[in-house]
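B., you asked whether I could sanity-check this one before it goes into the benchmark set. Here's the sequence:
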Amino acid sequence: MGFNPNAVELLIQAKEHGVNFKRSIAIGRQGLHLSEQDFRSILLRNSLPEIEFEHYFEPFFRLLGAEVVDSIDASTYENATVIQDMNLPIADVHKQKYSLVVDGGSLEHIFNFPTAIRNCMELVEEGGHFIGITPANNFFGHGFYQFSPELFYRIFSQNNGFRMVKMYLFTYSKNDVSEVFEVVDPDSVGKRVTLQNAYRTYLFFIAKRENITELFAEPPQQSDYENLVWQGEAYPHQQAHTGNSILEFIRKLIPKWIRLKLLRTFEKYKLIASPVGLSEKAFIFKPNSKGKP
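And here's what the prediction gave me:
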């Protein structure tokens, strides 16, 4: 996909979370998908010097401190520096080579996802970071997959030597940045973190490789099954809802199919415009009053 205005903004702010761009590699040679004017506005807003605007990401990463800027792709059509089909295991020479690995929207196009994500993790050195920018909702037909927060929280876990630093959600905007929301770990709340909305929606997350260990020695399991259902606890959807009492009354009074039809109508005519739609606000929320991390 490439880096849109929100991705550019969040990549800059990733440095505040300790991300080191010194030796970077992108999965696919990523482009900057925003106007030159918006790019310059974002640099100015973040007190960064102006650079010449180019389509590909390398000058932008060098501005953020990169000395090595590589890209990996199965094809030579965009002149990636490493030619590798991510459906297949990477060679040892590439492992633990980079301080930062970024997927800017390639993994959803790779059929063998478990191998591809393992390759991404193998590229990261100890103490380095992985950043994922990936489709989460309303990308039907865009690629092979669109992803849930649960998947990446379970993958980038202590079992695999990683720790999830932050996970954000934002909707597509072709003009400047849109609102940014933080997404909690379903395991921490003991319930599925779900989303129903009418917007193309992305996840942006930062994970740190804290130690080198065997990856996927135990396959990731969905947390509500592993820690609740299989332990004899109530199924999460059967647990008491803790949301707004007025909304609970509406849910009970109006059949679900009518509620959904009303929601689609409201969204179609822009009568409401909530990027987080029907999600529970305690699970997907603004990090601060400005909606920025």
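One thing to flag: DSSP finds nine helices and nine strands in the chain. Otherwise nothing jumped out at me.
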